[in-house]
Specification:
Elements: H1 2-6, H2 14-20, H3 32-38, H4 42-54, H5 58-70, H6 73-85, H7 89-122, H8 135-141, H9 143-160, H10 169-177, H11 190-242, H12 247-263, H13 267-275, H14 284-292, H15 298-306, H16 311-321, H17 331-337, H18 343-367, H19 379-388, E1 394-398, E2 427-431, H20 438-454, H21 458-461, H22 464-476, H23 485-496, H24 502-522, H25 528-538, H26 555-567, E3 599-600, H27 605-613, E4 623-627, E5 634-638, H28 641-654, H29 657-671, H30 677-701, H31 703-723
Antiparallel strand pairs: 1-2, 2-3, 4-5
Amino acid sequence: HSVLQQGVKGYQTNVAQSLAVMRIPRQGMDDISEIMQSVGGDSNITRFAQAFLDLKDPMARADMIRKSAQGNPWEKMYTVYVNGLLSRPTTHIKNALSNTVFLPWRMTERAAATGIGALRRAAGFGSTDAYRFSEIPAMLASSGAGVRNGFALAAHAFKTGVPKGWKDPTKIARQQSRMDLFNYKADGSMLSAGIKALNYAVTLPGRSLLTADEFFKGINYTQELAAETTRLQINTFEDAIKAGKTTEEAMLAGDTAVANFLAEPPDYIAQLAERGTFTQKLEGFGGEAQKMLQANTALGFAVRTQIPFIATPLNIMAETVSRTPLGALSKGLWTDIAKGGTRESDMAMAKVGLGAAAMSGFASMATDGNLTGSGPGDRGTRDAMIRQGWQPYSMVVDFNDIDDGVRQALSKIPTSVRFGTGDYAGKVYISYQGLEPIGALMAMSADYVDYSKYEGDNSRINEVAGGLAFGFANYMTESPFLQGVANVQQIFGEIFASQNDKGRFINGIDNISRTFAEVASKSVMPLSGALASVKEKIDPIQRDYQADPNMPAGLKGLMEGFNKIRGNLPGLSEGLPPKLNIWSETSSYEYAYAPWRMKEGKQRPVDQAMIQLNANVSMPSRDISSVDPTTGISTSTKLTTEEYNEVLRVANKEFNLEDNVMIVVQQIELDAGNGDLIRYQQAVKKVFTDTFSSAKEKVIGDSKYSDSIKKRISARAEQLKQFGQGAK
């Protein structure tokens, strides 16, 4: 009992759930089933008992109880890690915007379902129970009360760290234990107050996200309750009139039905409210995965840091898919439609119909240049567009119709030439990322238009379903709720696709070690996301965190991981070299706090020409080749960041890369588009290739860099001389 009292802060593991049985008040044997249910069933108790009995030393058993009740280091580190991810201001602003936009959208869907139900009833098909038009004004009228209820739920969540609707004491204790990462005794001392403040600061992002969700859940619940009671009252009144009741008796029956309904509202009202915030309970495979993936072991910690959020992205995906033609692949949608002639089928058809109509409108906006998707697949062309001011997944607003009078060199090329997004001057790009599920619908529509614009293979363009699915997946992987998924994909892609490719295998090893370094740092660094935002404001320059490419595999990844963390810390980032673009200009962060990432377009002749040509000119390779004077063997080495930046500087400042490109562009203009597009593209690429080759030769001859480069070339040549092409 003494040990349990010492670990009263909370229960986070199956062991702790089992121990909670001892703390639940019991009135008799009739309550045993309820007790078992509250701790997760007999399987959890069995596992606890076996683990407990396996320990023969009494002190080891006491230590097991204490650690399980307080949470082990893996769980505490994971809590720090997740709260760090959530600590960026933009995450919370986007969450609030998403919930705000989804409120009227769901109301519009109810109006559409009402229309479908009215037509169905008029035709005498299906159930007489359908959504009513009067529910819409009832929901609007309840908004004031909904906001007040939302504030009440939000205040409770912020204060206690748990939703107000939770009743399971074990679940509440387990959640609250996540708010107390560092154990302290509230004795009024300065140390106690400091540790309490540290707990509060570290867990504030998670608490804030829960608070926002509870606020919107309160609004959703109130509106859903108003709609349900309105429909119930109308249905009861009509049924009473049909049964021969007087108007007064029918009205009384309706009022009585509503009073009984409100006395104990059914659970499905809360479930509808949770759907509006994407917090509904996962079922099936998703639910099982959520139960299995716990961060209370080293392996569980590693997996969960790469998939920190399970419920939210899966719920977003489900809510999005159910509103698109891809809904045909959704089991839930077909289940509802199969209930033909019911409110559920009306709503299912309303979701798909309204979603399809919205996607058609979004596609039209994208065609007109008022909406952007992911852009072209060619990295070089996409980078040129971004330098012009273009931005992926954004709404485009033209603030002026100023005619700059400058139609750049390729204006005379025939319209068969593929364009980027045209003239960027005077346009502002407002990101819609995070406005789920509407943002995902916009992205799918815009991406399909982009496929049509940039994809040369018509057969692929015609694969509508495949295009929409790929666009949706591409958009979702950039979501903050899917942090780490891209890392996993990249790691496994490099390792399992490497086969006999030593370079790809080494890249995979470096990716693993880099991810390890990042996770290890963020799991002990409170508010890592907020620190990164502060850094971007204080030091807006993007830093190149790549380590010396000639370091051993694994060690290189570790150094890059730590450099990346360093590059996101205010006061430490300035020690890393800046990241340069192809024109040797420093790249900067522009939106440390703004969730909309508004960007005004700008005109640059050379980039506009590259976009119109779709030249797809990428950054130069980091490889540099030379002949070792001792052995006479020609080999290569990789440039360090400082050496690479010098190559970019020399190419632009000394060899006038931009001017040389524009000379070729002017020649193309004089040709008036009579030549083949591929020849134009090759001519532009040749300028870049030749200029960067000359710049590399200049850097090799520079006394500041030549000794280091030649030493690496010589070492590599000696390996080749001794071991041949199989040299490692």
